[in-house]
Batch of 2 targets.
Target 1
Amino acid sequence: DGGITQSPKYLFRKEGQNVTLSCEQNLNHDAMYWYRQDPGQGLRLIYYSQIVNDFQKGDIAEGYSVSREKKESFPLTVTSAQKNPTAFYLCASSSGYIGADTQYFGPGTRLTVL
Amino acid sequence: GNSVTQMEGPVTLSEEAFLTINCTYTATGYPSLFWYVQYPGEGLQLLLKATKADDKGSNKGFEATYRKETTSFHLEKGSVQVSDSAVYFCALTDRYGNKLVFGAGTILRVKS
């Protein structure tokens, strides 16, 4: 079955540590996205990538980093510079073509800073 | 930039009641409009979409019509079920067509 996988589902981190969240898709999509969701709030875009080896900052990129070395993978690193990293993180992908703009989401990773 | 405003929740209904969740938008150009649903602890699922004015998106008994004259995309369902309890997000494409802009989400609670 085609889809998006995120791992792990729950992640705990000590203050001051970097942590990497995994996102893999087998939909052959060109575009991938990372969002942050806080309780009672909508989704805020962290980074997005429209093609391999290229990515752009979203609305809240500070304290985060990404890479896009393979079409299927778009890992997100939450660095120690992120002041309030506890949140639910969602990865999404889309075909990237104009007019085919539906995004498909993974199940999410809940990050808790201890 | 493009933006979307949803009615605040939570919305609490009895089973078989009629549902309306309001969504209005501001946009440059001709965005596509979406409704996504999020069940507790899960990612978002596409519920329906519309790509041009007067289009009606529909799925699982839900429907929404793209109204350019009122810049609205209200979600409706004739008879809700307990299993419809979730958070509903309205979204639209940004002015360049390569990102989605989401509303804050509306919590729906359906009681039996």
Note: The interface with chain B takes residues 4, 6, 31, 33, 40-43, 45, 48, 50, 58, 90, 92, 96, 98-99, 101-108 of chain A (CB under 8 Å).
Target 2
Amino acid sequence: NAGVTQTPKFQVLKTGQSMTLQCAQDMNHNSMYWYRQDPGMGLRLIYYSASEGTTDKGEVPNGYNVSRLNKREFSLRLESAAPSQTSVYFCASINAYEQYFGPGTRLTVT
Amino acid sequence: RKEVEQDPGPFNVPEGATVAFNCTYSNSASQSFFWYRQDCRKEPKLLMSVYSSGNEDGRFTAQLNRASQYISLLIRDSKLSDSATYLCVVASNTGKLIFGQGTTLQVKP
């Protein structure tokens, strides 16, 4: 039982490049979330998916898209990366109110 | 004003000390409250839920004051291993979790 996994762990992009962050959970949870964490800002919700086939915007969705591929997988795509998207990205799945987080992806955009 | 506010610290305390963190929230309709712990460069993990009557888990005590809209976390007999960032989390009436920016605790020998 791996919990929540994320790939890659680290990534450096140039401005304008695109990439997809992958997230998978094996706990059979319905809801999955993408957050970004920046110094002094705490965790901010980018997008979430309450169930397979549905996605909704969170607090800071601009510049991102998501896909809930199936119950297990929820991916986050940056179509044209910007330096302001340099951050640590966490994926999480939820059971009742307990969120289980993946280990994070550290993304730097130069 | 942020929905959930915490003093970022850092709180520097000696081993064995008692330390308390507060957190305020702005949405009076908030339903549920939690403390998460985050170690440096790691993901957050649930430390404990916060119940209206207050609750204790070993050296940790959490309390909720709905009238004043704040929650607190008390750590007794601090250990070196308690050094971490403590995140206050509030579940809104829509079910979304709102995170505070965290309070950093450093326990010194």
Note: The longest strand of chain B covers residues 84-91.
